[in-house]
Design goal:
Length: 322
């Protein structure tokens, strides 16, 4: 690689269909057992590498200046990649945000994984174990987004077992009120506090019915469960009202995703989810309402082409005689 190269990758959102949480570990983290599925809701991450030109890692998020800079998880991933693989080239990252921020949908972690995918392709890094180590150093969800797709996660989230999950049509309800924002660290702390108050000590959770190296097939939608939901709803009762909205609009089940505050409801079809979105969106103020579906595989990185050049090619093709 001698000339500047720009790569792009879609950074998918996720929901946790199951999230079981164990007691605090010595390192301050918790062991989990979680079934995660990626969604078709995605950010677009572009990474421009300038080989032979030393320089900083920069990160820009148009329209979201508070997310600019090296504190962004994608920028932190690029910095960790440079340290791990001895790279000093200038790296510029641009993120077009579609996934709500601090929502329990994994947007920041997915952006970081997308940046790693782009850099791994740019520098022809095929050492998946090393990339996974870099990913885990950024955040517990990042290894999942480097994986194939739907998966059970154990440990902090780095022990992954691929899963096949039936297609799901979801209604996402994200409360934009800053008073309902939840930091992941707070959600886990609230759970620990509630368990201590009740005299409970949860066992280390286990992935159900999965053998090492064997893809786990989920024949039907599992019973949704999130151990972080009860302590969050106890402290933020408005989230329970949001969950009730999803059920009242026809969801077969509804639950908070991850550390929240996004609630998702499961519907039998995209049309049913869309009808529910229209119904709720017209009556509930302060809610971002979106319809999404699960996907089986994470996308790879590809050379970036501007929408203008793509449309130009389309016009050239359409002008040819048939």
């Amino acid at each position: 690689m001698r000339t500047a190269l720009t790569l792009a990758a879609r950074a998918l959102a996720k929901v946790n269909l199951v999230l079981r949480v164990g007691p605090p570990r010595a390192d301050g983290y918790h062991d989990i057992a979680s079934l995660l599925v990626p969604l078709d809701l995605a950010d677009l991450v572009q990474v421009r590498v300038s080989p032979g030109r030393r320089g900083p890692v920069t990160c820009r998020v148009p329209g979201r200046p508070e997310l600019d800079g090296q504190g962004n998880l994608a920028a932190r991933a690029a910095l960790a990649f440079r340290r791990r693989f001895g790279v000093e080239d200038r790296i510029a990252i641009r993120i077009d945000k579609r996934i709500p921020v601090t929502a329990g949908l994994g947007g920041g972690s997915s952006d970081a994984a997308a940046a790693l995918r782009c850099l791994a392709r740019a520098y022809r890094v095929g050492d998946r174990a090393a990339l996974a180590e870099v990913a885990l150093s950024i955040g517990s969800d990042v290894p999942f987004f480097l994986g194939e797709g739907a998966a059970w996660a154990a440990g902090r989230g780095e022990l992954l077992r691929p899963a096949r999950v039936p297609p799901l049509h979801l209604l996402l309800l994200y409360p934009a009120d800053p008073a309902l924002a939840i930091r992941a660290a707070d959600a886990y702390r609230w759970l620990d506090e509630d368990r201590a108050r009740a005299g409970l000590r949860a066992p280390t959770p286990r992935i159900p019915g999965v053998l090492d190296g064997v893809r786990h097939r989920v024949a039907a939608l599992p019973r949704l469960r999130n151990d972080l939901e009860p302590p969050c709803l106890a402290r933020l009762p408005a989230l329970a009202e949001i969950r009730a909205l999803a059920v009242g609009a026809g969801a077969s089940s509804a639950i908070m995703s991850g550390s929240g505050p996004t609630v998702f409801g499961v519907f039998g079809s995209r049309a049913a989810a869309s009808r529910a979105a229209s119904r709720i969106g017209g009556t509930a103020a302060g809610l971002e309402v979106r319809v999404a579906r699960s996907v089986q595989r994470q996308p790879g990185a590809a050379p970036w082409r501007s929408p203008r050049s793509a449309s130009s090619r389309s016009r050239r093709r359409s002008s040819r005689p048939t």
